[in-house]
Amino acid sequence: MDPALTDEEERFMKWLEEGDVTGHHAGDAPDLPAEWHKLRHNVDSLRDLLRANIPSAQEPPGSASFNDEVRQKLD
Questions:
Q1: In angstroms, how far is CA 40 from the centroid of its own chain?
Q2: Which of 15, 17, 19, 53 makes a 20 to 30 Å CA pair with 71?
Q3: Under 8 Å CB-to-CB from 11, ≥6 apart: which residues?
Q4: What are the percentages of helix, strand and coil residues in the chain, rounded to 5?
Q5: 23-32, 41-50, 55-64: which has the minimum mean pLDDT?
Q6: Is the dihedral angle over the CA atoms 9, 25, 55, 46 positive or is it negative?
Q7: Is residue 40 within 8 Å of 27, Cβ to Cβ?
Q8: For the whole prediction, is pTM greater than 0.70?
C-alpha cells in the first residue's frame, strides 16, 4: 500500500487532476528576452542532433565498467 500523501502532495495531485496546469508553452511567448529564444533554439538543435546520432535501442553502459573506463582514460 502506498504511503499517505502529505498535504502539499495532495494539493498538487488535485491541481493536476483539475487540469489547471498552465505555463508549459510560456517559452513560445514573443515578449521573452531574445537570448532565451536563442538558448531554446540551441537546445532544440542539440536534442535533434543527439536523436539523429544515438540509437534509441542502445542501453547505457553499466555504471561500474563505465567509471573504470573513464578512470583508465584519465590516467
A1: 13
A2: 53
A3: none
A4: 60, 0, 40
A5: 23-32
A6: negative
A7: yes
A8: no
